[in-house]
Write a structure and sequence with these properties.
Elements: E1 24-29, H1 44-51, E2 58-59, E3 64-65, E4 71-76, H2 84-100, E5 104-109, H3 115-125, E6 130-134, H4 154-162, E7 167-170, H5 177-186, E8 188-190, H6 195-201, E9 209-215, H7 237-249, E10 253-260, H8 271-287
Parallel strand pairs: 1-4, 1-5, 5-10, 6-7, 6-9, 7-8, 9-10
Antiparallel strand pairs: 2-3
């Protein structure tokens, strides 16, 4: 598998053409085969890149510009449509290669199940890994309608692999009663709110390798209608950006991140894609040291 090119197409703003010197690699995971409501997130990675052309390369929040870091956009992985199992294998193999080359993986989803093989590979390299999960949904089901490969299951899989005490969940406002009971018993669980509880939790994670996974539906639908399973009562884009900045300014060691569940077809205004693109810029400037 080639690590320096998944396909030819649009790239994220200011991406380097040199894979070898890159500190971080952006890659797309265009999969939406297991969603429980509206498909379309497989088109998210490409559109996030396309709208990035409207971004400035300078972040006034972090006082850094994109030319201060080296990152490479490899494009989207070629995933076999409809074959969730093989798609997850391809994602895992790709990320394994990035980690061997010393690159930080920055993933674009795709449904949230795509985060599972990434977390699994990073955990192999960092056995003391912690996961910061920011989402409207708990994603703690063991299966959905009898199917264990579902976008409602990735964090449960991660908890069973790593131990729930290594999972930190923020913003959750939807799930089954069983999921909430499991979370309260097994996870560092902070439902409904994000920034305030995150600020209190970050000191516990100082010095640890951390993977950050953000489902765009943590935002209120008024801020991000372009997602497959929108959930009323979410946070603002301002708070989500402040959350990324808080992680960036902390003493945690971010070793990878993703933004998932952007479904452009449901947002003709482009606001969902625009906020996702800005989040990626801030992750690059905040997490890549």
């Amino acid at each position: 598998m080639r690590l320096d090119q998944a396909y030819s197409g649009n790239i994220f703003i200011a991406s380097s053409e040199d894979y070898a010197s890159a500190q971080a690699v952006i890659y797309g995971m265009p999969m939406d085969f297991t969603v429980s409501f509206r498909p379309g997130s497989r088109f998210g990675p490409a559109r996030i890149r396309e709208v990035s052309i409207g971004l400035e390369e300078y972040s006034p929040y972090l006082d850094r510009t994109l030319d201060e870091i080296r990152y490479f956009d490899a494009g989207d992985l070629l995933l076999p449509f409809g074959n969730a199992g093989r798609s997850l294998e391809i994602i895992g193999e790709y990320v394994e290669g990035l980690l061997k080359d010393g690159k930080m993986p920055i993933g674009l989803g795709g449904e949230h199940l795509v985060s599972w093989p990434v977390i699994r590979e990073i955990y192999k390299k960092y056995p003391d890994l912690a996961v910061i999960h920011i989402d409207a949904h708990a994603d703690l089901r063991e299966q959905y309608e009898g199917e264990p490969l579902s976008h409602s299951t990735p964090i449960r899989k991660a908890a069973e692999l790593m131990g729930g005490s290594n999972i930190y969940q923020f913003g959750i406002r939807s799930g089954t009663k069983e999921e909430f009971e499991y979370a309260r018993k097994n996870i560092h669980f902070y439902p409904f709110d994000v920034l305030e509880p995150l600020m209190k939790a970050l000191p516990e994670l100082e010095g640890r390798p951390v993977y950050v996974t953000i489902d765009i539906d943590v935002l209120d639908p008024s801020a991000a209608p372009g997602t497959g399973t929108a959930e009323a009562g979410g946070i603002t884009s301002k708070e989500l950006l402040a959350t990324v900045h808080a992680i960036a300014r902390s003493k945690v060691n971010v070793v990878g991140a993703d933004v998932v569940e952007v479904a452009p077809v449901y947002d003709s205004s482009e606001q969902t894609q625009i906020v996702a693109s800005k989040l990626i810029r801030e992750m690059l400037l905040g997490f890549v040291k």
